[in-house]
From TrEMBL:
Protein name stated in the entry: Ribonucleotide reductase of class III (Anaerobic), activating protein
Lineage per the UniProt record: Bacteria, Pseudomonadati, Pseudomonadota, Gammaproteobacteria, Pseudomonadales
Matching SUPFAM superfamilies: Radical SAM enzymes
Species whose genome carries this gene: Pseudomonas batumici
Assigned keywords, A-Z: 4Fe-4S, Iron, Iron-sulfur, Metal-binding, S-adenosyl-L-methionine
Record has Iron-sulfur as a keyword: yes
InterPro entries (UniProt xref): Aldolase_TIM, Organic_radical-activating, rSAM, rSAM_sf
The protein's required cofactors: [4Fe-4S] cluster
Highest taxon listed in the record's lineage: Bacteria
GO-annotated molecular function: 4 iron, 4 sulfur cluster binding; metal ion binding; ribonucleoside-diphosphate reductase activity, thioredoxin disulfide as acceptor
Keyword Metal-binding in annotation: yes
Signal peptide (from-to): none
Length: 185
C-alpha cells in the first residue's frame, strides 16, 4: 500500500516535543482560503510505500511523536491506519483533519484512525477566523499528548533547504476544557 506524500520535516511547532510532520498530498475538502493549497492536488506529490515511510519514522529515535497534516490525511485513511500500525508504539500521534467529528464517526476507517492516534484536531478551515484552528475540535484518545501545548504561545518555524523555505507552526489557540472531547469507545 502506498501513501501520497507532499513532504516530511522535523518540527517543534506542530505538536509537543520534537516531531516528524508528515504532510500528505491530496485534499477533497478544498476549504475556501486554505493556506496550504499546494497540498490539495492528489495528482502531485510522491507516492511511496507505507512501509518505507514507517521505516524512516522508526529510525528516528530522537523524536517524541508524529504529526499528520496535509492535504487531508483522512482522504487516505487506509494508508494512514497502516502507517500508524507499522510505527513503534512509543511515539505519540497528532492528526489534523478538516473533517468534523460527525463526518469522521460515520466512516469506519476514519474512526479507526482517530481512535489510533492520541489527539485529533478536527473541523474545517475558516479563512475568516482569528486564527486557522479557531474552529477545530480536539478529540483526545489518550493522555500521551499534552493538550496544553495547543493552548500556549509557540514560535513559528522556518525550515530552509537548498531548494525552498517553509514556514510552519500554529497560532495561539485558547481552548476551553469543554471543547475537548473524548473519543467514543
Amino acid at each position: 500500500m502506498n501513501i501520497n506524500l507532499h513532504h516530511t520535516e522535523l518540527s517543534r511547532a506542530n505538536g509537543p516535543g520534537l516531531r516528524l510532520v508528515v504532510w500528505v498530498q491530496g485534499c477533497e475538502l478544498n476549504c475556501k482560503g486554505c493556506f496550504n493549497q499546494p497540498t490539495h492536488n492528489p495528482e502531485t506529490g510522491l507516492s511511496i510505500p507505507v512501509s518505507a515511510l514507517a521505516e524512516q519514522i522508526n529510525a528516528l529515535d530522537s523524536i517524541d511523536g508524529v504529526t499528520i497534516s496535509g492535504g487531508e490525511p483522512l482522504d487516505q485513511a487506509l494508508a494512514i491506519e497502516a502507517l500508524i500500525n507499522a510505527v513503534h508504539r512509543e511515539k505519540n500521534w497528532v492528526l489534523y483533519t478538516g473533517y468534523a467529528p460527525k463526518e469522521i464517526f460515520r466512516d469506519a476507517t476514519m474512526t479507526r484512525v482517530v481512535k489510533a492516534v492520541d489527539l485529533t484536531l478536527a473541523g474545517r478551515y475558516h479563512s475568516n477566523a482569528i486564527h486557522p484552528y479557531q474552529h477545530k475540535q480536539l478529540i483526545k484518545t489518550s493522555d500521551r499528548v499534552d493538550i496544553d501545548f495547543f493552548r500556549t504561545k509557540r514560535t513559528v518555524e522556518f525550515v530552509v533547504s537548498s531548494l525552498s523555505m517553509t514556514k510552519t507552526g500554529l497560532p495561539i489557540q485558547q481552548t476551553s476544557p469543554d471543547a475537548v472531547k473524548r473519543c467514543p469507545t
